[in-house]
Design brief:
It contains 11 helices and 13 strands. Strand 4 and strand 5 form a beta hairpin. Helix 3 packs across helix 8 and helix 8 packs across helix 9. About 35% of the residues are buried.
Length: about 350
Protein backbone atom coordinates (compact mmCIF):
# COMPACT_ATOMS: atom_id res chain seq x y z
CA UNK A 1 0.00 0.00 0.00
CA UNK A 2 1.40 3.39 -0.99
CA UNK A 3 1.46 6.34 1.43
CA UNK A 4 -1.11 9.15 1.58
CA UNK A 5 -0.77 12.67 2.92
CA UNK A 6 -4.19 14.36 2.93
CA UNK A 7 -7.85 13.33 3.04
CA UNK A 8 -8.30 14.44 -0.56
CA UNK A 9 -5.55 12.03 -1.59
CA UNK A 10 -7.57 9.32 0.15
CA UNK A 11 -10.57 10.12 -2.05
CA UNK A 12 -12.45 12.34 0.42
CA UNK A 13 -15.33 14.19 -1.27
CA UNK A 14 -18.04 16.71 -0.29
CA UNK A 15 -20.68 13.96 -0.04
CA UNK A 16 -18.83 12.64 3.02
CA UNK A 17 -18.03 16.09 4.42
CA UNK A 18 -21.74 16.89 4.55
CA UNK A 19 -22.37 13.99 6.94
CA UNK A 20 -20.14 15.40 9.69
CA UNK A 21 -21.48 17.28 12.70
CA UNK A 22 -19.70 19.84 14.84
CA UNK A 23 -19.26 17.15 17.50
CA UNK A 24 -17.64 14.89 14.90
CA UNK A 25 -15.10 17.58 14.05
CA UNK A 26 -14.25 18.09 17.71
CA UNK A 27 -14.17 14.51 19.00
CA UNK A 28 -13.41 12.11 16.13
CA UNK A 29 -10.87 11.34 13.45
CA UNK A 30 -11.64 10.40 9.84
CA UNK A 31 -10.19 7.20 8.40
CA UNK A 32 -10.69 4.99 5.37
CA UNK A 33 -10.56 1.20 5.29
CA UNK A 34 -7.52 0.25 3.20
CA UNK A 35 -7.44 -3.50 3.81
CA UNK A 36 -9.90 -6.04 5.22
CA UNK A 37 -8.39 -9.00 7.06
CA UNK A 38 -10.04 -11.85 8.95
CA UNK A 39 -9.77 -10.22 12.39
CA UNK A 40 -9.06 -6.57 11.70
CA UNK A 41 -9.23 -3.66 9.29
CA UNK A 42 -6.18 -1.66 8.26
CA UNK A 43 -7.12 2.03 8.32
CA UNK A 44 -5.41 4.94 6.62
CA UNK A 45 -5.72 8.61 7.52
CA UNK A 46 -3.71 11.81 7.42
CA UNK A 47 -1.34 10.61 10.14
CA UNK A 48 -0.59 7.16 8.71
CA UNK A 49 -2.03 3.69 9.22
CA UNK A 50 -3.52 1.89 12.19
CA UNK A 51 -5.35 -1.36 12.91
CA UNK A 52 -8.98 -1.68 13.99
CA UNK A 53 -10.02 -4.99 15.51
CA UNK A 54 -13.30 -6.30 14.07
CA UNK A 55 -16.21 -6.75 16.49
CA UNK A 56 -19.60 -8.37 15.94
CA UNK A 57 -21.30 -5.08 16.76
CA UNK A 58 -19.74 -3.37 13.73
CA UNK A 59 -21.82 -2.84 10.59
CA UNK A 60 -20.75 -4.75 7.48
CA UNK A 61 -17.84 -2.81 6.03
CA UNK A 62 -15.29 -3.26 3.27
CA UNK A 63 -12.30 -1.64 1.63
CA UNK A 64 -13.12 1.92 0.57
CA UNK A 65 -15.54 2.62 3.43
CA UNK A 66 -15.12 5.85 5.42
CA UNK A 67 -15.44 5.67 9.20
CA UNK A 68 -15.02 7.86 12.27
CA UNK A 69 -12.81 6.78 15.20
CA UNK A 70 -12.01 8.44 18.49
CA UNK A 71 -8.57 9.53 19.72
CA UNK A 72 -7.97 6.04 21.13
CA UNK A 73 -8.73 4.39 17.79
CA UNK A 74 -12.15 3.05 18.79
CA UNK A 75 -14.86 2.76 16.14
CA UNK A 76 -17.56 5.46 16.35
CA UNK A 77 -19.62 5.13 13.18
CA UNK A 78 -19.54 4.46 9.45
CA UNK A 79 -20.33 7.22 6.96
CA UNK A 80 -23.04 6.65 4.35
CA UNK A 81 -21.66 5.22 1.13
CA UNK A 82 -21.57 6.87 -2.25
CA UNK A 83 -21.52 3.48 -4.00
CA UNK A 84 -21.09 -0.21 -3.21
CA UNK A 85 -20.08 -3.34 -5.12
CA UNK A 86 -21.27 -6.64 -3.65
CA UNK A 87 -21.91 -10.17 -4.84
CA UNK A 88 -23.55 -13.33 -3.54
CA UNK A 89 -20.94 -15.55 -1.90
CA UNK A 90 -19.30 -18.14 -4.11
CA UNK A 91 -20.68 -21.67 -4.18
CA UNK A 92 -23.86 -22.47 -2.27
CA UNK A 93 -23.21 -20.04 0.58
CA UNK A 94 -26.08 -17.65 1.21
CA UNK A 95 -23.99 -14.64 2.14
CA UNK A 96 -23.47 -11.13 0.82
CA UNK A 97 -19.82 -10.51 0.05
CA UNK A 98 -18.85 -6.85 -0.10
CA UNK A 99 -16.24 -6.07 -2.75
CA UNK A 100 -15.56 -2.32 -2.65
CA UNK A 101 -17.20 0.89 -1.46
CA UNK A 102 -17.23 4.53 -2.50
CA UNK A 103 -15.99 3.96 -6.04
CA UNK A 104 -16.12 6.58 -8.81
CA UNK A 105 -14.89 4.52 -11.78
CA UNK A 106 -14.55 0.77 -12.35
CA UNK A 107 -11.90 -0.62 -14.68
CA UNK A 108 -13.46 -3.85 -15.96
CA UNK A 109 -10.44 -5.80 -17.19
CA UNK A 110 -10.73 -8.53 -19.82
CA UNK A 111 -7.89 -10.13 -21.76
CA UNK A 112 -7.87 -10.40 -25.54
CA UNK A 113 -7.41 -14.18 -25.39
CA UNK A 114 -9.57 -17.18 -24.49
CA UNK A 115 -10.86 -15.17 -21.51
CA UNK A 116 -12.61 -12.65 -23.76
CA UNK A 117 -16.32 -13.00 -23.10
CA UNK A 118 -19.04 -10.44 -23.81
CA UNK A 119 -21.45 -12.13 -21.40
CA UNK A 120 -19.00 -11.74 -18.52
CA UNK A 121 -18.37 -8.11 -19.40
CA UNK A 122 -22.12 -7.47 -19.35
CA UNK A 123 -22.28 -9.02 -15.87
CA UNK A 124 -19.77 -6.45 -14.60
CA UNK A 125 -21.52 -3.63 -16.46
CA UNK A 126 -24.83 -4.52 -14.79
CA UNK A 127 -23.14 -4.22 -11.38
CA UNK A 128 -21.69 -0.85 -12.36
CA UNK A 129 -25.07 0.42 -13.54
CA UNK A 130 -26.71 -0.73 -10.32
CA UNK A 131 -24.04 1.02 -8.23
CA UNK A 132 -24.13 4.21 -10.37
CA UNK A 133 -20.40 3.79 -11.06
CA UNK A 134 -18.86 4.72 -14.40
CA UNK A 135 -17.42 1.62 -16.13
CA UNK A 136 -14.37 1.58 -18.37
CA UNK A 137 -13.66 -1.70 -20.15
CA UNK A 138 -9.91 -2.28 -20.33
CA UNK A 139 -8.90 -4.94 -22.86
CA UNK A 140 -5.42 -6.21 -21.99
CA UNK A 141 -2.79 -8.18 -23.95
CA UNK A 142 -3.32 -6.03 -27.02
CA UNK A 143 0.21 -6.77 -28.20
CA UNK A 144 -0.44 -10.52 -28.24
CA UNK A 145 -3.85 -10.19 -29.89
CA UNK A 146 -2.53 -8.06 -32.76
CA UNK A 147 -0.15 -10.86 -33.73
CA UNK A 148 -2.61 -13.73 -33.35
CA UNK A 149 -5.23 -15.54 -35.42
CA UNK A 150 -8.93 -15.90 -34.65
CA UNK A 151 -10.83 -19.22 -34.44
CA UNK A 152 -11.17 -19.30 -38.24
CA UNK A 153 -7.46 -18.79 -38.83
CA UNK A 154 -7.81 -15.16 -39.91
CA UNK A 155 -5.83 -12.23 -38.54
CA UNK A 156 -7.35 -11.00 -35.29
CA UNK A 157 -9.53 -7.91 -35.90
CA UNK A 158 -8.96 -5.63 -32.91
CA UNK A 159 -11.22 -2.85 -34.17
CA UNK A 160 -14.15 -5.24 -34.60
CA UNK A 161 -13.62 -6.59 -31.09
CA UNK A 162 -13.60 -3.09 -29.62
CA UNK A 163 -16.80 -2.24 -31.50
CA UNK A 164 -18.49 -5.36 -30.13
CA UNK A 165 -17.73 -4.20 -26.59
CA UNK A 166 -18.73 -0.59 -27.24
CA UNK A 167 -22.12 -1.86 -28.46
CA UNK A 168 -22.91 -3.29 -25.02
CA UNK A 169 -23.91 0.09 -23.56
CA UNK A 170 -24.34 3.67 -24.81
CA UNK A 171 -21.23 5.85 -24.44
CA UNK A 172 -19.25 2.93 -22.99
CA UNK A 173 -15.53 3.69 -22.84
CA UNK A 174 -13.30 0.89 -24.11
CA UNK A 175 -9.49 0.93 -24.12
CA UNK A 176 -7.24 -1.81 -25.55
CA UNK A 177 -3.80 -1.77 -23.92
CA UNK A 178 -0.62 -3.67 -23.30
CA UNK A 179 -0.59 -3.68 -19.50
CA UNK A 180 3.22 -3.87 -19.48
CA UNK A 181 3.57 -0.68 -21.54
CA UNK A 182 4.19 2.46 -19.50
CA UNK A 183 2.11 4.43 -22.00
CA UNK A 184 -0.96 2.56 -20.74
CA UNK A 185 -1.37 5.26 -18.08
CA UNK A 186 -1.73 7.82 -20.86
CA UNK A 187 -4.63 5.91 -22.42
CA UNK A 188 -6.40 5.70 -19.06
CA UNK A 189 -5.45 9.20 -17.86
CA UNK A 190 -8.96 10.71 -18.35
CA UNK A 191 -10.12 8.59 -15.41
CA UNK A 192 -7.03 8.96 -13.22
CA UNK A 193 -8.02 12.31 -11.73
CA UNK A 194 -6.80 13.45 -8.33
CA UNK A 195 -9.17 12.53 -5.50
CA UNK A 196 -11.10 9.98 -7.55
CA UNK A 197 -11.34 6.34 -6.44
CA UNK A 198 -10.98 3.58 -9.03
CA UNK A 199 -11.47 -0.16 -8.69
CA UNK A 200 -9.87 -2.80 -10.92
CA UNK A 201 -12.07 -5.87 -11.42
CA UNK A 202 -11.88 -8.95 -13.58
CA UNK A 203 -11.14 -12.66 -13.72
CA UNK A 204 -7.85 -14.22 -12.65
CA UNK A 205 -5.05 -14.01 -15.20
CA UNK A 206 -6.41 -11.10 -17.25
CA UNK A 207 -3.57 -8.79 -16.23
CA UNK A 208 -5.09 -6.81 -13.36
CA UNK A 209 -1.98 -6.89 -11.17
CA UNK A 210 0.25 -6.06 -14.13
CA UNK A 211 -2.01 -3.12 -14.95
CA UNK A 212 -1.93 -1.92 -11.34
CA UNK A 213 1.87 -2.10 -11.24
CA UNK A 214 2.15 -0.16 -14.49
CA UNK A 215 -0.22 2.55 -13.30
CA UNK A 216 1.67 2.80 -10.01
CA UNK A 217 5.05 2.74 -11.71
CA UNK A 218 6.15 0.08 -9.23
CA UNK A 219 5.92 -3.68 -8.68
CA UNK A 220 3.49 -3.52 -5.78
CA UNK A 221 1.35 -6.50 -6.75
CA UNK A 222 2.67 -9.98 -7.54
CA UNK A 223 1.92 -11.14 -11.07
CA UNK A 224 1.43 -14.64 -12.43
CA UNK A 225 1.03 -16.44 -15.71
CA UNK A 226 -1.89 -18.28 -17.24
CA UNK A 227 -2.36 -21.74 -18.70
CA UNK A 228 -1.97 -21.56 -22.46
CA UNK A 229 -4.58 -24.31 -23.01
CA UNK A 230 -7.53 -22.32 -21.67
CA UNK A 231 -6.11 -18.93 -20.61
CA UNK A 232 -7.20 -19.59 -17.02
CA UNK A 233 -5.26 -17.53 -14.52
CA UNK A 234 -3.99 -17.99 -11.01
CA UNK A 235 -4.90 -15.75 -8.08
CA UNK A 236 -1.92 -13.41 -7.58
CA UNK A 237 -3.79 -10.66 -5.72
CA UNK A 238 -5.25 -12.29 -2.59
CA UNK A 239 -6.61 -9.24 -0.78
CA UNK A 240 -8.14 -5.91 -1.68
CA UNK A 241 -5.96 -2.88 -1.01
CA UNK A 242 -5.82 0.87 -1.69
CA UNK A 243 -2.96 2.57 -3.51
CA UNK A 244 -2.21 6.18 -4.41
CA UNK A 245 -1.39 6.79 -8.07
CA UNK A 246 1.10 9.45 -9.21
CA UNK A 247 -1.86 11.38 -10.65
CA UNK A 248 -3.45 11.68 -7.19
CA UNK A 249 -6.19 9.13 -7.88
CA UNK A 250 -6.84 6.26 -5.46
CA UNK A 251 -6.72 2.75 -6.91
CA UNK A 252 -8.36 -0.30 -5.32
CA UNK A 253 -7.12 -3.67 -6.57
CA UNK A 254 -9.28 -6.78 -6.12
CA UNK A 255 -8.54 -10.52 -6.35
CA UNK A 256 -9.67 -12.29 -9.49
CA UNK A 257 -13.29 -13.42 -9.30
CA UNK A 258 -14.10 -16.73 -10.95
CA UNK A 259 -17.71 -16.40 -9.77
CA UNK A 260 -19.62 -13.13 -9.85
CA UNK A 261 -23.16 -13.90 -8.77
CA UNK A 262 -25.40 -10.86 -8.89
CA UNK A 263 -28.38 -10.08 -6.64
CA UNK A 264 -30.61 -7.06 -6.02
CA UNK A 265 -29.46 -5.81 -9.43
CA UNK A 266 -32.80 -5.34 -11.16
CA UNK A 267 -32.23 -1.62 -11.71
CA UNK A 268 -28.77 -2.26 -13.15
CA UNK A 269 -30.10 -4.90 -15.54
CA UNK A 270 -32.93 -2.64 -16.64
CA UNK A 271 -30.44 0.13 -17.37
CA UNK A 272 -27.91 -2.02 -19.22
CA UNK A 273 -30.53 -3.89 -21.27
CA UNK A 274 -32.84 -0.89 -21.72
CA UNK A 275 -33.70 -1.78 -25.33
CA UNK A 276 -34.88 -5.27 -24.31
CA UNK A 277 -36.76 -3.91 -21.31
CA UNK A 278 -38.57 -1.49 -23.61
CA UNK A 279 -39.57 -4.34 -25.93
CA UNK A 280 -40.87 -6.38 -22.98
CA UNK A 281 -43.42 -3.66 -22.27
CA UNK A 282 -44.74 -4.07 -25.82
CA UNK A 283 -45.48 -7.80 -25.50
CA UNK A 284 -49.18 -8.69 -25.66
CA UNK A 285 -49.06 -10.51 -22.33
CA UNK A 286 -47.47 -9.00 -19.21
CA UNK A 287 -46.16 -12.41 -18.14
CA UNK A 288 -44.73 -13.24 -21.58
CA UNK A 289 -41.78 -15.65 -21.35
CA UNK A 290 -40.61 -14.70 -24.86
CA UNK A 291 -40.97 -18.22 -26.17
CA UNK A 292 -43.88 -19.15 -28.45
CA UNK A 293 -46.44 -16.75 -26.98
CA UNK A 294 -48.43 -14.79 -29.56
CA UNK A 295 -47.70 -11.08 -29.75
CA UNK A 296 -44.18 -11.35 -28.29
CA UNK A 297 -42.39 -8.15 -29.24
CA UNK A 298 -38.98 -9.59 -28.34
CA UNK A 299 -39.36 -12.62 -30.63
CA UNK A 300 -40.47 -10.29 -33.41
CA UNK A 301 -37.37 -8.14 -32.86
CA UNK A 302 -35.18 -11.24 -32.99
CA UNK A 303 -36.66 -12.28 -36.32
CA UNK A 304 -36.01 -8.86 -37.83
CA UNK A 305 -32.51 -8.68 -36.39
CA UNK A 306 -33.24 -5.65 -34.21
CA UNK A 307 -31.81 -7.36 -31.14
CA UNK A 308 -28.99 -9.87 -30.76
CA UNK A 309 -29.82 -13.41 -29.68
CA UNK A 310 -26.67 -13.69 -27.55
CA UNK A 311 -27.53 -10.47 -25.72
CA UNK A 312 -31.14 -11.55 -25.13
CA UNK A 313 -30.04 -14.96 -23.85
CA UNK A 314 -27.60 -13.34 -21.41
CA UNK A 315 -30.23 -10.85 -20.24
CA UNK A 316 -32.70 -13.63 -19.46
CA UNK A 317 -29.97 -15.63 -17.70
CA UNK A 318 -28.91 -12.67 -15.55
CA UNK A 319 -32.54 -11.73 -14.86
CA UNK A 320 -33.34 -15.24 -13.60
CA UNK A 321 -30.13 -15.40 -11.56
CA UNK A 322 -30.83 -12.01 -9.98
CA UNK A 323 -34.41 -12.97 -9.08
CA UNK A 324 -33.32 -16.30 -7.59
CA UNK A 325 -30.42 -14.88 -5.58
CA UNK A 326 -32.38 -11.82 -4.45
CA UNK A 327 -35.14 -14.03 -3.07
CA UNK A 328 -32.59 -16.25 -1.30
CA UNK A 329 -30.81 -13.26 0.23
CA UNK A 330 -34.13 -11.72 1.32
CA UNK A 331 -35.05 -14.95 3.12
CA UNK A 332 -31.69 -14.97 4.92
CA UNK A 333 -32.08 -11.32 5.98
CA UNK A 334 -35.56 -12.05 7.34
CA UNK A 335 -34.23 -15.08 9.21
CA UNK A 336 -31.30 -13.08 10.63
CA UNK A 337 -33.65 -10.28 11.68
CA UNK A 338 -35.92 -12.75 13.49
CA UNK A 339 -32.94 -14.34 15.24
CA UNK A 340 -31.57 -10.95 16.32
CA UNK A 341 -34.98 -9.95 17.67
CA UNK A 342 -35.18 -13.21 19.65
CA UNK A 343 -31.68 -12.68 21.12
CA UNK A 344 -32.54 -9.12 22.14
CA UNK A 345 -35.75 -10.31 23.79
CA UNK A 346 -33.90 -12.99 25.78
CA UNK A 347 -31.17 -10.53 26.83
CA UNK A 348 -33.79 -7.99 27.91
CA UNK A 349 -35.64 -10.66 29.90
CA UNK A 350 -32.43 -11.73 31.66
CA UNK A 351 -31.63 -8.14 32.59
CA UNK A 352 -35.08 -7.70 34.12
CA UNK A 353 -34.69 -10.93 36.11
CA UNK A 354 -31.37 -9.74 37.53
CA UNK A 355 -33.00 -6.49 38.62
CA UNK A 356 -35.79 -8.44 40.34
CA UNK A 357 -38.60 -7.37 38.01
Amino acid sequence: MTPFKTLSQLGWQPVFQQQLTLEDYENTRIARIAEHHRSHYLLINETGTESLEIHASFPSMTVGDWILIDDDGHFIRQLDRQSLFARKGAGTKVIEQLIAANIDTAFVVCALDHDFNLNRIERYLAMCADAFVEPVVVLTKRDLAENSLDADGNAFDLDETIRSVEALAPFLAVEAVNALDEHTANALSPWLKAGKTLVVMGSSGVGKSTLVNTLLGDSVQTTGGIRESDSKGRHTTTARSLHCLPSGAVLLDTPGMRELKIFDSEDGLNTLFAEIKELESQCRFSDCQHGNEPGCAIRAALETGNIDERRLSNYLKLQNEDARNSATMAQKRAKDKTFTKMVNTIQSSNRHKKKGF
